[in-house]
Amino acid sequence: MLEVSGITQIFGGVTALDAVSFSMSKGDITGVIGPNGAGKTTLFNIITGIYHQTAGSVLLEGKDVSGFPPERLARLAMVRTFQNIELFGGMTVLENVMVGMHTGSSAGLLACALKTPWSISEERRIRNGARKWLEFAGIIDLADHTAGSLPFGKGRLLEIARALAVEPRIILMDEPAAGLNSQETVALAQLIKRIRALGITVVLVEHDMELVMDICDRIVVLNLGRKLAEGTPREIQGSPEVIAAYLGDDD
Amino acid sequence: MQFDQILQYTLSGLSTGAIYALIGIGFSIIYNATGIINFAQGEFVMLGGLLTLSCLELLNLPLWAAIPCAVAVSTVVGILFERLAIRPLRHPTPINLVIITIGGSILIRGLAMLVWGKDTHAIPPFSGDNPIAIGGATILPQHLWILAITLIIIIINKIYFYHTISGKAMRACSYNRRAAGLVGIDVKRMVLFSFIISSAMGAIAGIIIAPLTMTAYDVGVMIGLKGFCAAIIGGMSSGISTVIGGLILGVLESLGAGLISSGYKDAIAFIILLLILFIRPQGLFGKADSERV
Amino acid sequence: MKRDLLLFISFSLLVMVAPQLFSGGYLMNVLVFVGINTMLAIALNLLLGYAGQISLGHAGFFGLGAYLSGILTATYGVNPWIAMPVAAVVVGCLAGLIGFPILKLKGHYLAMATLGLGIIMYIVFNETVELTGGPSGLSGIPNLKIAGVTFDSDVKNYYLIWGVTLAVMLFSLNLANSRVGRALRAVHDSEVAAQVLGVNARLLKVQIFALSAVISSLAGSLYAHTMTFISPASFGFNFSIELLTMVVIGGLGSIYGSFLGAALLTLLPEILRGANDYDIIIYGSLLIVMVMYMPGGLVRGIPILFRKIVRKGEGDHA
């Protein structure tokens, strides 16, 4: 589904990533873990079009998407969420998700401004679709709240609902459990499993080991810019190199 | 198109360019310390000239006393502006900062209009107006004053920023405000200092050019923008790059006005501004900085 | 939805009956300008309040529309109803072309670049004397005519201008509450998040910039035909600042706020008749005060203030 091949990223003298290659299978939940400074976020930003890699390529469903800007990737059904949730604070919760449905409609500037019947029915379709995703994420009751006023945990759910509204085939989440308490993390795990049940491929960068070991089908471990290990949670848990890299203390 | 003409344009362009350089450095100092573009920078240029006029005519001070007086009062205005308009701002988004500094500049200009009226005023040149011949061109003593004083200020600037503790502290703020705060530098004070230095420099620039171009309540707008243009060419540096930027701008403007058309003279600066912002926003001498654009 | 429609209809009715209340007289003339300024403020608000892009050169597009219409009709005898759309298209294309490089800039740099653009346009108006008449202005611009009716009086112009202004308001209100409007606000709140969701931020910004310029051009054309005389002085940096003040005071991101700001700033100089020189001090102070204490503009600040006063009143009684 998604493959990174030989990804190298050099920031003016510092090699953040060194020939990292692995692939993520369709329908899997893949976790990318590693100690701080391993290059996870850099890799993430390269895959999602925010940085340009120095070398290597990113293949989405076999197609080379290296260097594609984020909006183009969204139209290829790849979407991501952010570690520090980037909500549209001035808009309501529902409106946030409705923006997620942007690519699902082509009602343009003139059609919207002139309120053509078509644009009105599109607007209805967008609104209903957005509500459906809010229900899926379990926050439909917050639909009319201002996004900026949400507590962090709910904001995280909103961001995921919004990303799902793009109707992606693959969703990449940057530390989705960051800032959540244990209750919220459990709910998050359930949500991710339900996303997988829809047939969407999930890739997570995470620090929360319990979550990762619980839900991931495959795990890739990065350390100091290189791929250290790759395998099932059991394999990773038993790998001496991984344990050494982490020195056992992580949670 | 004789050499003499070109020399003439170049020389007068150099002295206007020096003024643009001073103003541009003022912009850069505040920008580097605070991230704010102070739209009101040009108004300090205006204040320098008009305040000197008042010191000379109302208070009957001799020139050598009037100038420091004028600079001092301009600096006080700068401090008031920072204290009353910038510091209390609760949501310092770029839009808000732009609007507030524009508001400040309009306010200062409006008050100046009330105090000094709408007429243009002249200030006597510092040492007479006997033309001096250089090659086939002539310059006035005031041109030499401009170049000399600009040079002195640039040297003082260099000494301050590189050889004094507070100057180095200000540079530290410009590289990384957070880190500077963490090592104990009073960032708020540095912001204040940046306004003090910039308003003083602006005032001095206004004083030394006033004998040549007359002064009025609205001279600040254009000259401020051109000073900004110099700063952009120089990549917002508070040193030699902006000086070169100012000189280039002054000379190009002067040559353009003389050789092509004088009506479009002001447009030259803005066309250059747009070109630089479009093609090389980090300035001619800066390194590419993805944050700026 | 229904409430918004009701509000708009009530507002339109108010606009339609206003001339009866102020029949004839000088105020009619001022109200025509309120209409033009409302159009301009809305154009700027779409760009600044919704999309979050600063422009300090909008008077330039206003002037461009005015001069294109004026020159085509007065000098070349083109039918005004052809000249106006032609001007709008030309200005729109120009803005679209300039928009691509200029909207790569952000914050202060965008502000300065648009400022420079506006000033360049002003200088061109002043210097191309053969075309524009230079500083002495361009006169002899014909009034508009529809089906034999010539719009040559204040009352007639009021209805014409406000007809267009109301149409622009409706257009903008529809846009604001639509897929495109949401995308704009999203780009304003977090451009990177919007992009990640598939919004082509760059293209959208350019589209809004062009739309904003087209509306300003339209306002300019109407201005030219109403005044029959135009000069560069109306299209300079000062007016761009006035427009900015209108939008900020009225309320960024609020169409009705733009009307409020435009009305206030057009009527204020008339109210303060004697204090003509004080107007720039007032603008400057207003800008500073509004940004510091009422960043949402009057359209949001007044209800909040009202509520505070009411609450205080209740508190005193308790």
Mean pLDDT of chain A: 87
Portion of residues in beta strands of chain A equals 15-25%
Count of DSSP-assigned helices of chain A: 10
Structural class of chain B: mainly alpha
The portion of residues assigned to helices of chain A is 25-40%
Cα shape of chain B: globular
What's the structural domain tally of chain A?
A: 2
Q: Characterize the main sheet of chain B.
A: 2 strands, antiparallel
First-last Cα distance of chain B: 40 Å
Largest sheet of chain A, if any? 6 strands, mixed
Pick out the low-confidence regions of chain A: none
Q: Terminal Cα separation of chain A, in Å?
A: 30 Å
Can you give me a brief rundown of this structure?
The complex is a heterotrimer of chains A (251), B (293) and C (318). Chain B has 293 residues and is mainly α. Chain B has helices at 3-34, 41-57, 63-86, 94-116, 141-163, 165-175, 177-182, 187-213, 220-233, 240-259, 265-279; strands at 132-134, 137-139.
Give an account of the 3D structure.
- The complex is a heterotrimer of chains A (251), B (293) and C (318).
- Chain A has 251 residues and is α/β, with parallel strands linked by helices.
- Chain A contains 10 helices and 10 strands.
- A 6-stranded mixed sheet of chain A has the order 6-7-8-3-9-10, with helices on both faces. In chain A, strands 2-1-4-5 form a 4-stranded antiparallel sheet, with helices on one face.
- In chain A, a hairpin with a 2-residue loop joins strand 4 and strand 5 (63-64).
- Chain A is globular and about 60 Å long.
- The mean pLDDT of chain A is 87.
- By secondary structure, chain B is mostly helical.
- Chain B has one domain (13-279): ABC transporter involved in vitamin B12 uptake, BtuC, CATH 1.10.3470.
- In chain B, helix 2 packs across helix 8 (187-213) and helix 10 (240-259) packs across helix 11 (265-279).
- The radius of gyration of chain B is 19 Å and the shape is globular.
- Residues 288-293 of chain B have low confidence and may be disordered.
- Chain C has 318 residues and is mostly helical.
- Chain C has a single domain (2-317), classed as ABC transporter involved in vitamin B12 uptake, BtuC.
- Helices cover 77% and strands 3% of the residues of chain C.
- Chain C has 14 helices and 4 strands.
- Chain C has helices spanning 2-21, 26-50, 58-75, 80-102, 107-127, 129-132, 154-176, 179-189, 191-196, 201-227, 237-250, 255-271, 279-293, 298-317; strands at residues 138-139, 145-146, 149-150, 229-230.
- In chain C, a hairpin with a 2-residue loop joins strand 2 and strand 3 (149-150).
- Chain C starts with a helix and ends with a helix.
- The model of chain C has no long low-confidence stretch (mean pLDDT 88).
- Chains in contact: A-C, B-C.
- Chains B and C meet through helix 4, helix 9 and helix 11 of B and helix 5, helix 11 and helix 13 of C.
